[in-house]
Design brief:
2 domains; Dephospho-CoA kinase-like protein; Pectate Lyase C-like; about 325 residues; alpha/beta; NT_sf; about 35% strand; elongated; Beta Polymerase, domain 2; 23 strands; seven-stranded parallel beta sheet
């Protein structure tokens, strides 16, 4: 593959074909591509500013760890492209096809999708700030639950998005393996941060024996205060975890990871909370109440199953239906007055 680092500004390309070209660490500004073809092209670690691609085909193009600002793709087709660990500001896709594209650990600010076909794409650990979409055709998409927790769009947009996707609500029977998986992850984490934390808590529904749950381990790492946070963040980074911010929830710092780096563990969510965190108190109080109150645990499990059955692809309906029971239990365990 030919290799070069280039700087391009105020250029228009028409009917150009690039094959087996490497242009990493390059800068492209005010560029227009019309009816161009890119095959096996590596643009990784590059910067794209004010770019327009019209009637273009991109096959096995690598944009990993690149920066995009002011990009529009019109009537263009992507197949097996990589946008991993990239950042986007003001991106527009119109009348495009995206097939087997990877958007892993990316950040999108102001994303517009209109009349697009998305199929067999991976959206893992993706953050979307401002999302507009219409007339989409979607199939065989892979989303991590971190996408849901990481979305910072309005509730109305999120629910419409999930409805469009047809996301299935999955509630699994309790498994004794969940406690064992938590202990494996806890042991791994303690190798690096044991001196800087108070404790590690298994929270969420997988932490309650006998309760059905979404099969993802929720973990709260408890610290004295934020004076310990940087040391813990550094330790987690050495284990392959990346800091994602608080994702809109105060004093609950989220961390994600690459799937292939942690495939020896069950899927899990990592949060770091100071010991006085309201969110930590909510997690632990709710968990302990369900562990010690069999009637409420049974009632909560029943409503989760009923809601998943009634609203298998309606996230809002599922959350609203079980939310009534959650509020009742919160009142009984002192989380709501």
């Amino acid at each position: 593959m030919a290799s070069s680092k280039i700087e391009l500004n105020e250029v228009k390309f028409e009917n150009v074909e690039l094959t087996n070209v490497k242009m990493t660490h390059s800068n492209f500004t005010n560029i227009t591509f019309i009816n161009c073809t890119f095959r096996h092209v590596n643009f990784s670690n590059s910067s794209f500013n004010n770019i327009s691609m019209v009637d273009c085909d991109l096959d096995e193009v690598d944009f990993t760890q690149s920066e995009f600002d002011g990009i529009q793709f019109i009537s263009s087709n992507f197949k097996q492209a990589l946008f991993n660990k990239s950042n986007f500001i003001f991106t527009k896709y119109e009348d495009c096809q995206l097939i087997e594209v990877e958007f892993i650990r990316i950040k999108h600010k102001e994303l517009s999708l209109t009349k697009c076909l998305l199929s067999k794409n991976n959206f893992l650990y993706t953050r979307l700030d401002g999302l507009n979409f219409s007339n989409l055709k979607l199939s065989d998409l892979l989303f991590s639950m971190d996408l849901i927790s990481g979305m910072t769009i309005t509730k109305e947009q999120a629910m419409a998005f999930f409805e469009e996707l047809g996301v299935n609500v999955v509630v699994a029977n309790y498994s004794e393996d969940w406690a064992k998986e938590f202990e494996k992850i806890k042991t791994d984490i303690l190798k690096k941060i044991s001196a800087d934390i108070i404790r590690i808590e298994h929270v969420g529904s997988t932490s309650v024996e006998g309760l059905c749950a979404k099969p993802i381990i929720d973990i709260d790492i408890v610290i004295e205060d934020y004076s310990k946070f940087e040391a813990v963040k550094s330790g987690l980074a050495s284990l392959g975890y990346e800091y994602e911010g608080d994702l809109g929830i105060t004093e609950r710092e989220a961390f994600s990871y690459e799937i292939d780096q942690k495939n020896q563990f069950m899927e899990h969510h990592i949060y770091v909370c100071p010991k006085h965190s309201v969110e930590l108190n909510r997690h632990v109080t709710f968990r302990d109440h369900l562990r010690n109150n069999q009637p409420d645990c049974q009632k909560y499990g029943e409503i989760k199953r009923a809601a998943a059955k009634k609203f298998p692809t309606d996230i809002e309906g599922y959350l609203d239906m079980k939310g009534v029971v959650i509020s009742e239990i919160y009142q009984r365990c002192g989380l709501l007055k």
